[in-house]
Write a structure and sequence with these properties.
Layout (H helix, E strand, L loop, with lengths): L3 H15 L51 E5 L5 H10 L4 E6 L2 H14 L4 E5 L12 E7 L8 H11 E15 L10 H5 L8 H10 L3 E11 L11 H9 L3 E10 L4
Length: about 260
Amino acid sequence: MKNEEQLKSEVKDKYSAILNKPKLRCGCGGKKEVVFEIDYSGIDGYNPEADYGLGCGIPTDGAGVKQGDTVLDLGSGAGNDVFVARRLVGESGKVIGIDMTEAMIAKGNSNNAKAGYTNVEFRLGEIENMPVDSNSIDVVLSNCVLNLVPNKEHAFSEIMRVLKPGGHFSISDIVTRGSIPERLREIGALYAGCVSGALVKEAYISIIEKSGFADIVVKNERPISVPDDILDGVNEEDLDALRSSDTVIISITVTGRKPAA
């Protein structure tokens, strides 16, 4: 079985390579075929230079981000949701993006330099061990990233740590209905493609509950299809195993709050 560091290395390689490919419109790690359209074009603060089509939702939508908030975006990539959040927090707020891929951090910093924002910051780091002070964040955002984190319990523990008492999160992610066949979880391309790292929806929500969050709500939920070309490096036998399983891939947006006391 691959360890956490091996899985992270495969994700870093895949997402570094994405910067050298045409921009996508198909969710995590894909190439060209549309799974579903995430349309940011009418959203205030949207920066096309930061959009590589890697999301599975719009976590800022209904996230309750206010002027003056400090917002943290986990797995910020080139800054797509960071720049939307920046428009919401205004001049008096701050937005921090964290990503473990150096190439994505460099792209985010380049995009921010062009925008000229002084209250946007990109930090290199891992979600299970964030370079962020405890009790310092009003709103945590993330878009199709936590399914890529091997230790999701640590990830939500860190979200709890960095949020201010009474702060909240809005996370778009991939979960499943039915379990991924166990042997497929070892395939790096399926992991980096947001498939084999996804948990069954009930298990995902259970981790959030056990982390101590309150007012947990699944705000959006819809099944998605995964085209074969999103799964570079997967052999036909393994693709057949995935197709013949009872697994349904689902996009959700879930919110939750850190208790005030």
